[in-house]
Design a protein that fits this description.
Length: 270
């Protein structure tokens, strides 16, 4: 009896351990961003409430070396972790809970819950997205459309176009399908259930793909307000969190899409 009680207590603590681990990952990611993300910029320098950001003579960053590429990929990846992990936490915790239940029912013999494998698969998808975003950043900078130091758009046409595209995407069936998966953790876990470490990684990858499909146009707006503008980063992260978790998230997402289209149109006219 004592051994059973101890095991149950360990499982109970395991829930808190996993939840604390997710909180720690998010906290460390935000700490990295607030510290300049390796760019040497201060928090004040990375913060502006002005929109659109001031357009000045484009600051060229010169040619990108390997070290700078790695820095930018790391910056994007950690920024995606900071912005996306809070909204992914319910799926991760539900997966762990279902796995433990299956263990207690004797359906799974392994004593371990491969939650880390699930999270790793999820983050790998955002790493691929970060590689693509870094490449796009390099291209925009090379074309003189992006300020190399502040990492925001230096062209109102680019800003307006990105805003209109992101706003329109909020109403497309693909967006709604991906958002449905993100807003329905129970449905996702039941439909995509796999056992073992490899299965957990595959489930994490699948959920990551749905998240990217849901949010990539919103993440593209970082080029509008500033890739390292903390105000812009926090605002978009809150939008993603509310859209996925709030009861009226779908309506809020559509309202945000309407505002994006209107703002983008204003920038093009202005």
């Amino acid at each position: 009896m004592s051994e059973t009680t101890a095991a149950e207590g360990l499982l109970q603590r395991d829930r808190w351990i996993m939840a604390s681990g997710l909180v720690l990952i998010c906290a460390l990611s935000w700490f990295y961003l607030l510290g300049g993300a390796g760019t040497g910029m201060s928090t004040v320098a990375m913060t502006t409430w002005q929109f659109p950001p001031p357009i000045r003579a484009v600051t060229s960053g010169g040619s990108w070396g390997v070290s700078y590429w790695l820095l930018m990929v790391s910056m994007w990846w950690i920024m995606m972790i900071a912005m996306m992990m809070p909204s992914a936490a319910p799926v991760v915790l539900l997966y762990a809970r279902v796995y433990r239940h299956a263990q207690r029912q004797g359906q799974i013999k392994s004593p371990y819950v491969p939650t880390a494998s699930f999270v790793a698969g999820y983050l790998v998808v955002w790493l691929v997205f970060s590689l693509a975003s870094t490449s796009l950043q390099w291209l925009l900078e090379s074309l003189g459309l992006l300020d190399a130091m502040m990492m925001w758009s230096a062209d109102l046409v680019l800003s307006g176009g990105l805003l209109i595209a992101a706003g329109a995407y909020q109403f497309l069936p693909l967006k709604q399908a991906c958002l449905k998966h993100c807003r329905s953790p129970v449905d996702f876990v039941s439909r995509n259930w796999r056992q073992g470490w490899t299965g957990a990684a595959v489930m994490g990858i699948e959920h990551g793909i749905f998240c990217v499909g849901c949010c990539w146009p919103i993440m593209a707006l970082l080029f509008v307000g500033g890739v390292m503008n903390l105000v812009w980063i926090a605002g978009l992260a809150i939008l993603v969190l509310v859209e996925k978790l709030a009861p009226e998230g779908r309506g809020i997402g559509r309202a945000a899409g309407t505002a994006m289209i209107a703002t983008g149109g204003y920038l093009l006219v202005a």
